[in-house]
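Fold it.
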Amino acid sequence: MPEPLHHGLPSHESSTQLELAPRWRVVVLNDPVNLMSYVVMVFKRVLGFDETKARKHMLEVHEQGRSVVWTGLREKAEAYAYSLQQWHLTVTLESDETH
């Protein structure tokens, strides 16, 4: 007898496909233009970060020249990158080779 379908739960097959899908990193790069307070505000608005997380990533950008602000499937990564660029941040996408 076949198992009943569980609505709302991904099937094993689809979750395996997601695990095998290449993952992408959204990387914000330092620039000489944007103020630190502005970058914090953009991270909060676009990525939904709280104040602490937004400041942590802003400081990484400021001190290390870059910060990986999101990792996941390419379509969502491209959407985040586009949104951040609309706020005039310098953004790049990188393949996440670790997955």
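Confidence is low (pLDDT under 50) at residues 3-13.
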